[in-house]
């Protein structure tokens, strides 16, 4: 298992002062920036694109930017995000007709590739892509909105995904996204997650450092 990464979801940040708020979370001890991209088509909400990713880089954000694409189709926008400074790009299998091709494209563009599984999407899809991914992101809410409640069955799924990753002996991170709070983080980490996304828990608080420490468990 790799060292724990905390990735604040800027979906819950103050968009009127996104640079400062993102920097604030990183200075408070966060490791990555989780960047949620929604298109009002694959998910019923609309957010931000490559321009905003580039703006964060131009503002001086140097931490890894973990781009979570909830858009369909997805291929056309992958090179744009790579050029705008994305570090990891994760895609939902339901959002592309040719998953293997889309994952290859992400690496060809120089980024790490991730696959995102919705709460009801089985883990089987990992069987034939494990050599093409650097990260598995399990959704513990239905994608589209911040501030939803953690779906408990995600813990069982985390344990199964942990076993699959360990058996593969590949270096693949296991990330969880949705409803992660200080009070469930210990169970989530025990179930095998090594990368925690947290939006409302961090940005909804006035003590980012305190929440990030609590998520780490100390
Ligand atoms: C939901 C997004 C999440 C969301 C998490 O579609 O993928 O990243 O921002 O927000 P919280 O932590 O508030 O559940
Ligand atoms: Zn996300």
From TrEMBL:
Record-level Gene Ontology MF annotations: D-ribulose-phosphate 3-epimerase activity; metal ion binding
Catalytic machinery residues: 36 (proton acceptor), 177 (proton donor)
Enzyme Commission code: 5.1.3.1
Keyword line: Carbohydrate metabolism, Cobalt, Isomerase, Manganese, Metal-binding, Zinc
Binding site for a divalent metal cation: 34, 36, 68, 177
PROSITE patterns reported in the protein's UniProt record: RIBUL_P_3_EPIMER_1, RIBUL_P_3_EPIMER_2
Enzyme's top EC category: isomerase
Domain of life, per lineage: Bacteria
CDD domains on file: RPE (cd00429)
GO aspect biological process, one term: pentose-phosphate shunt
A cellular component term, taken from the record's GO annotations: cytoplasm
Chain's role: Catalyzes the reversible epimerization of D-ribulose 5-phosphate to D-xylulose 5-phosphate.
Name this polypeptide is given: Ribulose-phosphate 3-epimerase
Natural source organism: Wenzhouxiangella limi
Gene giving rise to this polypeptide: rpe
